[in-house]
Model the fold of this input.
Amino acid sequence: MPTEKPLDRIFEQFLAAPKIFKNRDVLRPTYVPDELPHREKQITKVGMILASALRGGTPSNIFLYGKTGTGKTVVAQYVLKHLKEKCMEFNVPVPITSYINCRIVDTSYRVLAHLCSDVGVSVPITGLPTDTVYDKFRKSLDEKGQLMIIVLDEIDQLVRKNRESANDVLYDLTRINSSLENSKVSIIGISNDLKFKDHLDPRVISSLSEEEVVFPPYTADELKDILIQRAKIGFNEGVLEYGVINLCAALAAREHGDARRALDLLRVAGEIAEREGSNKVTEKHVRLAQKEIEKDTVSEVLETLPIQSKLVLFSIYLLEKHRASEINTGDVYAVYQNLCRYLRMDSLTQRRVSDIINELDMLGLVYARVISRGRYGRTKRIKIGVPLNLIGDILEKDPRIKGVADYVPRIT
DNA sequence: TGTCCACTGGAAGGGAGGGCTT
DNA sequence: AAGCCCTCCCTTCCAGTGGACA
Done:
């Protein structure tokens, strides 16, 4: 059979291109390296707490705080990995571990369902009463007679989205040990957001954060060390031009010392260089990578937005595009209602739109701040948070939005 | 100093879409 | 099939509020 020629060429070109990466996976955020520079203190503390598992004890619950990309998740995974290894080495029962990212597993029911599947019980996606799922989990865990360490990553997301039920589940989980005869549970909670404690039941806070570990942002120098370490195993020797690592570190340090961002920059810069067929990664590639990363994350978020959120965002976009001096909830709602009328769609209430604006703010697409204009009331002052043309370009791909693309809002 | 605006954001609840148990 | 229970998205209702203005 003759093969397809153009594709052949692409593959061959790829193979012929100079090899930039030795192992690109080590530059991904999920990779757990053998050493974590500048996190020795945190590793020691978490390690000391979890060590009691080696003597058959129940480690205290731990809370890890710090902004994104400060190494919370990776430290937790690193310590757990080594703990398990030690358990095997000393012939101690290896704890069951469960890692749950609450941004994805974002309801109490789903958290419990996830825990069930980690102890080998399958439960339906929906349908059962939450209590039943909890009981199933408790029973089958108790049958195992083992320690279970549960990592709840981005736990603030769970609490933010369902305050009542999240409190219930967390309360139950922190008390579960008193109803277990043969097994024990330890919880590692991870959060980006310190303020989220305000939404938690005080009893949950106290038992969840028996121990607390704080992760400060990395400085530019620390980021540099991390990048150098990963670059050694990730890139072939000599492909990184002088200054590339410094630039990645500097750019990421500007964003509250985010190591994930730094690694992404380095990886994407490498990928761009590879695509170009260049045999060196240069500072120019890093700059391009920065643009590409922003564009990718923004467009992915925008494309998956539900239509109502798109319309609200588009209303804000139109107001900003036509140079409204300031944008408030009321203005947005008025434009939004007009757009809905043109599209012959039912419009949501202002209460809901107000929430949607908050959601857009959380996604980083807009900035919304509550301000008071004195006599003229309290409202949200809203600004677009990403490049304006990007929003227009991507939203107008939606045929419904395209239908109102030329709408000109009345500016007051 | 009090008033009052334009909202905010909490609380409760409805109903559609899903799936369980009996 | 009936009776529950779940989530998700939304509405309705309403007390609360920061600060410009009279």
In short: The first helix of chain A runs from residue 5 to 16. Strands of chain A lie at 62-66, 96-101, 147-153, 184-191, 211-215, 366-372, 378-384. The two ends of chain A are 68 Å apart (CA to CA). The mean pLDDT of chain A is 87.
